Amino acid sequence: MDFGKDFIWGTATASFQVEGGADKRGENVWDMFCRKENAVKYGHDGLIACDHYHRFKEDVAIMKEMGLNAYRLSLSWRRIINEDGSLNEDGVRFYNELIDELLNCGIEPYVTLFHWDYPLDLYHRGGWLNPDSPKWFGEYTKIVTELFSDRVKNWFTLNETQCFISLGHGLGIHAPGLMMSEEEVMRCAHNANRAHGHALAAIRAYSKQKASVGFAPVGSVIVPETDDPKTVAAARKRMFEVSHPRYWGNAIWIDPIMLGKYDPELMEYFADHKISVTDEDMKLIGGDLDFMGMNLYVGERFGLNGRTPLKVGFDMTAIEWEVIPEAIYWGARFYYERYKKPILVTENGMANTDMISADGCVHDPQRIEFMRRYLCELNRAMRDGSEVMGYMHWSLMDNFEWAEGYQKRFGLVYVDYKNECRRIVKDSGKFYADIIKTRGANL
Ligand code: NOJ
Fold first, then answer.
1. Sign of the torsion formed by the C-alpha atoms of 145, 148, 150 and 155
2. CATH superfamily of 8-438
3. Is residue 219 over pLDDT 90?
4. Which residues form the catalytic set?
5. E strand or H helix at 103
6. Any atom of ligand 1 within 6 Å of the Cβ of 295
7. SS3 83
8. Domain boundaries in the chain?
9. What is the reported pTM?
10. Element (H, E) at 153
């Protein structure tokens, strides 16, 4: 198996999940949510996290040792711009040093503008419900582009809009913990899509070099039970139809961005609820992207009789998500067919109950097997004609798994929280290094 010489091999993280250094930045909705009783397991918070803020040089050195040629990081809005609009010099210095360190080590930075740590003060002004929120995001993006685009070429606007809007504003299980009505969630959804459009326009207008821009939605992938063409067609149809509740499927989060339009059923919904969707909005939202990001963990098995229930004894991760490698195949295939843009796997990985063994190492055969299976399926998608630019494993290191706290470990690198966050490269980290070195020949 070969992934080719230009394949992007990366890992991904997000600011709130790894940085810590909270005393050096303004607050965001996750700080507030962590203080809320019983909102986050074990009362964990992001104050220290993995202390990446202080240990980033060591982390970049580990990445270099692994042979990565890309690293996906996210920026914390309130580490860069203070509430009063002035620059947070300390934060700007931090990101400058991190970007420079990566480039010095031959690792290309892939920067996500927003990975859920929404400024708390803006939330108090209505957050995503405020019709001006897309403009705020565009202004933030302009500043960030001016600061870093002399060295950063690759950008993602929003990470998993589905989650921060649906889980955060509909189901209340992520920050800011709201349980809005469906029509209000839909209002936020359209504003988030508009925010993507404003950010894209700002990057195009202010980048100091030719930028490559995408976004990182979570792939809501339907996996056909068999390869029989009728089943495949049924799965494809299901994957792109307006799903219920409306605010979870691809129709609301991916189609408008990749195709520049909402399904007529959604347009009717917007009109019925007096949610304004203008031609100008759609032009911004549907602005041309360079690639499509895909965060891929799970998929829904589907047959001619509808959804296939999970079988007793299904393989699962520590978060109880099914291990379903075919999802990465069908995700790459169905998205590529529909949107005709190269696919970049922006996240894929698994939670495990890793611990340090008597020999001082962290042995995680499940993650090795997980990676092997998913990468084989990704390679099959490439052989079958999907254009795939690269793969970024979630995550470089164990980190704050949102409402689950720190106990769900996703890293290729173990973070020993009990001992000042010291790092131990897990067996899977060494395996990944080998995959990169052999371009997949060892799979
Ligand atoms: C998707 C999110 O982008 C990331 O923040 C999260 O930790 C992983 N999935 C695992 O749940």
1. negative
2. Glycosidases (3.20.20.80)
3. no
4. 160, 347
5. helix 89-104
6. yes
7. coil
8. 8-438
9. 0.98
10. none
